[in-house]
Design a protein that fits this description.
Strand content of chain B: over 45%
Shape of chain B: globular
Oligomer: heterodimer
Distance between the termini of chain B: 36 Å
Helix content of chain B: under 10%
Number of helices of chain B: 0
Structural class of chain A: mainly beta
Number of helices of chain A: 0
Number of strands of chain B: 11
Structural class of chain B: mainly beta
């Protein structure tokens, strides 16, 4: 069965600091995307960043970047210059067939 | 920017009642999904829908659940006889191709009392 593992249930970071959320996945797909979603207290699912597996270059979106290690099936999210508004649950997601499989999530708290 | 719209944002229903959760996917998308998130737990796949039929469903999606695209724009999830354990956040998503780069709606919080 497809699995996505987020080993950090909760993390804290000081405002303006950098934090890295880890994710490992297991897929038999050859060409796929990987995703990080942010879920603030409103519980809306917001796409933060996506990585195309056939691209070696790590994706970057402003303060968010990934460290994608395809051989290790690792897909971590780095948040630079953390802001209070980054406080949320973060989910890593990997495709399995035509659906997404989500990790259990990491609660990130940004402290002032 | 196009977005997936879900209504209502919050629905409270009595156990045993039928509920219909509504979604308007992004207009040129062809693949539609429902996911569920019980409070404090991970997001779980329920069902995918393409070409007017279910393409895949999970074990959660039993006979109490059905989906429909009644008019070419809306995509609905019906729960025939709600149970307490159906209380969750329900997310609709749509995508333009089979790679599930899905765009999620804001969710409907269903509370069964």
């Amino acid at each position: 069965a497809q699995t996505v593992t987020q080993s950090q249930p909760e993390m804290s970071v000081q405002e303006a600091e950098t934090v890295t959320l880890s994710c490992t996945y297991d897929t038999s797909e050859n060409n796929y995307y990987l995703f990080w979603y942010k879920q603030p207290p409103s519980r809306q699912m917001i796409l933060v960043i996506r990585q195309e597996a056939y691209k070696q270059q790590n994706a970057t979106e402003n303060r968010f970047s990934v460290n994608f290690q395809k051989a290790a099936k690792s897909f971590s999210l780095k948040i630079s210059d953390s802001q209070l508004g980054d406080t949320a649950m973060y989910f890593c997601a990997s495709p399995y067939g035509n659906k997404l499989v989500f990790g259990a999530g990491t609660i990130l708290r940004v402290k002032s | 920017e196009p977005e997936v719209t879900q209504t209502p944002s919050h629905q409270v229903t009595q156990m045993g009642q039928e509920v219909i959760l509504r979604c308007v996917p992004i207009s040129n998308h062809l693949y539609f999904y429902w996911y569920r998130q019980i409070l404090g737990q991970k997001v779980e796949f329920l069902v995918s829908f393409y070409n007017n039929e279910i393409s895949e469903k999970s074990e959660i999606f039993d006979d109490q659940f059905s989906v429909e695209r009644p008019d070419g724009s809306n995509f609905t999830l019906k729960i025939r006889s709600t149970k307490l354990e159906d209380s969750a956040m329900y997310f609709c998503a749509s995508a333009s191709d089979p790679k599930p780069e899905a765009f999620f709606g804001q969710g409907t919080r269903l509370t069964v009392v």
